[in-house]
């Protein structure tokens, strides 16, 4: 890495830190204002209030990082263009293509950190924030292994399954009802299980009732204890909530496996999983795309015009990515289509870098 590349990298990181601090300050104020309603009539100190607002920053910062990177790139290139340092670098034989590598490398690091936050930091901060809010409001603190309730499944054999409660901390599933149809689609039998308990490496069903409702009177078979060979329940107790918006990538992948085994549609789960990665990768795409667009050696160069055009393009890219996500959620496009804007804009950015490198 030559000296000018090092200078460019330091300048970008400096601008990235400045913009990040500004965004964090605004986000903290927004989070603090939102907490005023949440903590109404609650008992807390000023330190508690600051910490809870800081937790809110961590939960929302990933959504803002791509725009922070976009603004940082624009600021960096404006400084280099205005001081004619980039022009001088080109005059002495510098390459715009080679100059892009340090920025792309930083983009890879930032994207990796965003993915790490989705896997590790954000889930832990979400639990810590909820526990702290509960303490302030005088409510009991939940553990990190909650569960969910009143869940329905429809598998590939058209068997309807209702689960009353999944307790992750107890490794127990309560109130399982299976409604099994015959070949005509009419419910022919019902299986009721009082609870499923994970004992050692096996699932044990207690008080199972198999009811044939086509006979009169219904025929009922009761099994007090039955060891099951079905391992799909292992995945179910690893999911802490039914709110898809807060699923971690690990939980999404686990549910995809479970739904696949049950013959259920996994498109919405795959879409959310793919979008988490696609949005993180957007940092790299924005760097590759905005870096060559923000370079302009024209005599009619205008800082305001150049910055406006470059920033608008970043908005267009993120907008297109969101549109493809919406098309995927509506079933018009497959879940993997969320990566299509990444591929298209990546090639556009690489072409522009190549084109700018050839320009004399």
Automatic annotation (TrEMBL):
Keywords: Cell membrane, Membrane, Transmembrane, Transmembrane helix
An example Gene Ontology CC term for this record: ATP-binding cassette (ABC) transporter complex
InterPro entries to which the protein is assigned, alphabetical: LptG/LptF_permease
Full protein name: LptF/LptG family permease
Localization in the cell: Cell membrane
GO biological process, alphabetically ordered: lipopolysaccharide transport
One protein family per Pfam: LptF_LptG
Taxon lineage: Bacteria, Pseudomonadati, Deferribacterota, Deferribacteres, Deferribacterales
Tree of life domain: Bacteria
Organism in which the protein naturally occurs: Candidatus Mucispirillum faecigallinarum
Membrane topology qualifier: Multi-pass membrane protein
Segments traversing the membrane: 12-29, 49-74, 86-116, 273-291, 303-324, 336-355
